[in-house]
Amino acid sequence: MKETTVHNCEIIRDLLPGYAEQLLSRSGMQAVRDHLDRCPDCQKIHEQMQKEVLETTPSLEDRRALDGFRKIRRRTRHLKLLAAGTLILMLSGVLCGFLMLFVIGKPAGTSWIDFASCSYDEETDSLTIQGHAGNLNIQKVLWEEDDSENTLINVLVYETEALPFTAETHDFTITIPDIKGRDVCLACPNYDRTRIYSWRDDHYELIEQMEEAIRREIDTFDPERNILYCYPYIYDKDGRKWLTFHADRVTGENASWWYWGDRIVTDGDLEPTGYEIWVSLSEPRQILFYDYRNGEWVGDPDDMDMTRTNES
User: How many whole angstroms separate alpha carbon 32 and alpha carbon 157?
Assistant: First the structure.
C-alpha cells in the first residue's frame, strides 16, 4: 500500500504544473485535488509552487509600468531612426549642394563668355577655341554633337564657386577634332546658343571656287535665277570627301534674290530644281550630279535642266 501511495505522489507531482495552470482534463483536475486533500507532502509542494509563481509573476501595476517602458523604448527607437534618417537626408543635401556649387557646376550663360580666338588646323581638321569669362570661375569645358543637327557642335562652359583660399580660373582652351564642314555654337543649354564658328564661312573662298566650277559645268545655269546653297555636311564617297550644293530657282516676273547675312532673300518664289551637286574637296576637283526625285545620278551635266523647278 505504501509503494502505491509513493507512486501516486510521483504522478501527482508531475501533474502539478498542469494543475496550477488548469490545463488538465476535468477528471485529472479532480484526481489531483482529491490527492492534495489526502496527502500533506504533495500539498506542501503545491503551496510552495504557488508561492514561487506569485513571487515571479509581476503585479498589475508592475505590468503596466513594464508595458509603458516598452512603449517608450519603441517610441525612442522610432525617434532615433527618424532622426538618423533626417540627418542622412540633410547630409546628403549638403553634400549634393557642395558638389553642385564647387565641383560639378552648371553651364554658364553665353552672354558671360568672351571668345578670344578660333583657330582651324587644315592638316588635322581640328578647331582650337580660346575663351575668357571675367566674372565666372570656370570648372570645365565640354563639347558635344547636337541632338537635332548632325552638322552642329555645342560647347558648354561649366562654372562653379571657387573653393576658399583657391584662385579662380577665368580662361579656357578646348580643341575639337574633325570639325570640317561643321558649325560650332556656345550653348547653355541648347535653347541658349551663340554661333562662334562656321567652317563654310571660314572657307568662303573655297566655296566660291566650287560654285564657279559648277556654273561653268552647267550650260543652263542662270545666275539671275539659279541659287547654289552649300549644305553644311561633308560626305564620304569613293574614297573622297565631298561637299553638296542644293540648286534652287527663283520664279516670278522680274523676281530677284540676294543674301541677308547667311540667309537667302527673294521677292519671288524660291523652289528647288530637284538636283544635288557634289563637288570633291581634294584636287583635281570632280563634280557629280544627283537627281533626288528619282534617286539616280546624272551622267551628263547637259541633261540637267536648271530652267525647270522640281514641281514643273
Answer: 94
Cβ atoms 142, 158 nearer than 8 A: yes
Domain locations in the chain as residue ranges:
2-56, 61-104, 107-198, 203-303
Contacts of 223 (CB under 8 A, 6+ apart): 215
C-alpha to C-alpha distance for 44 and 42, rounded to whole angstroms: 5
- Kind plus residue range of the DSSP H or E element containing 69: helix 60-98
Largest CA distance in the chain: 145
CATH 3.10.450: does it fit domain 203-303? Answer: yes
**Residues in the chain, total:** 312
Q: Which of 144, 127, 136 is nearest to 189 (CA)?
A: 144
β-sheet with 240-251: strand ranges across: 226-237, 240-251, 269-280, 287-291, 296-298
φ, ψ for residue 61, nearest 5 deg: -65, -40
Report which residue type is found at 234. I
CA distances to 3, 152, 196, 244, 278 from 237, rounded to whole Å, are 117, 21, 29, 12, 10
Nearest to 306 by CA among 231, 219, 229: 219
Q: Which residue has the cell 549644305?
A: 231
3-state secondary structure of 171: strand
What tens digit of pLDDT does each residue of 154-212 get?
999 999 988 887 888 999 999 999 999 999 999 987 778 899 999 988 999 999 999 99
Nearest to 200 by CA among 168, 229, 226: 229
Task: State if pTM tops 0.70.
Answer: no
Q: Which residues of 71-95 are buried (b: 16+ CB within 10 A; e: fewer)?
A: eeeeeeeeeeeeeeeeeeeeeeeee
